[in-house]
Amino acid sequence: ENEYALQSSLSQLKGSIKNKIIDIRNKIIYHTAFIESALDDPEHIEIDGYADTLLEAAEEIIYDLEEMISSADNGRVIREGINTVILGKPNAGKSSLLNVLAGHERAIVTDIEGTTRDILEEQIRLGDLSLNVIDTAGIRQTEDVIEKIGVDRAMEYAGKADLIIYVVDASRELDENDEKILPLIKDKNTVILLNKSDLDTVVTEEMIKKKAGSICSGFPEEGETKKEIPVISISAKEEKGIEKLEKKLKEMFLNGIVSFNNQICISNVRQKNALADAEESMKKVVESINAGMPEDFYSIDLMDAYEALGSITGESVGEDLVNEIFSKFCMGK
């Protein structure tokens, strides 16, 4: 079993998810109880100006929920491995890269363009990462029926990938085939490899960034702070630069996204849907506040969020609200 899948399970068993949700529910029930208490006893509990306090709290809760929802896909990646697609034009070195990553000759490598016509799949362990790697047919305009099917499949797999490794033949000028590939990496986790560094190269990091920036939004334009797609120089033939690729992937999928120290990892579809319901209810709270709606409107959506989160932890509303009102605001005493 994938080491990280095991750690994810242990993390969940230790209750990191439940504890986080309980914390959010406690915040929600507190604010709901305050509103209900103030509406019932306006002489003793002042509610004027409370909307600003609630707005800040609601936005923090929405942020936390979004973080947990985004971890759902990460949970699948941890359990099943990173679905990785290798893209590039013919003879860019995709199959050579697959062989290097696999540690054995998985794909046939020749100087003849279009050798790989179908999809090759290999599960690869790269350091602490598990990659489900798919080597695709070189993307180019072709009249060959079989090769065209391979190209179409490559584009289809790219759309479903968790990670795209785009292999560029740095010894050849960028051409229309590269322009056909670049839109496929838009909005994808991508690493661009400038392959064949052992030869005289004509494509630089600056060139590929400029080309990509003119075709897709994967690179920041002037004045933007969008995260850049990493570009790494390698030689698949001489197995150089692979350690840089491994380091970059760890940054992307471990340090940047998944950390098992106090990591919250949602890996259940039902849980994800419940979080989405809670988030939607909290957004309605924000909308009501911004629209100047009466305070009782806030309580309805707050309790909807509370119930949605309770469905994850197995806790119902029950007398929670009543207990919170009596314990925190001394109603009836």
UniProtKB/TrEMBL annotation:
Keywords: Cytoplasm, GTP-binding, Hydrolase, Magnesium, Metal-binding, Nucleotide-binding, Potassium, tRNA processing. Residues 81-254 form the TrmE-type G domain. The keyword Lipid biosynthesis does not apply. GO terms for cellular component: cytosol. Transmembrane segments: none annotated. The keyword NADP does not apply. InterPro entries: G_TrmE, GTP-bd, MnmE_dom2, MnmE_helical, P-loop_NTPase, Small_GTP-bd. One of its GO terms (biological process) is tRNA methylation. Pfam families: MMR_HSR1, MnmE_helical. It comes from the Bacteria. One of its GO terms (molecular function) is GTP binding. NCBIfam families: small_GTP. PANTHER family: TRNA MODIFICATION GTPASE GTPBP3, TRNA MODIFICATION GTPASE GTPBP3, MITOCHONDRIAL. This is 50S ribosome-binding GTPase. It comes from Candidatus Mediterraneibacter caccavium.
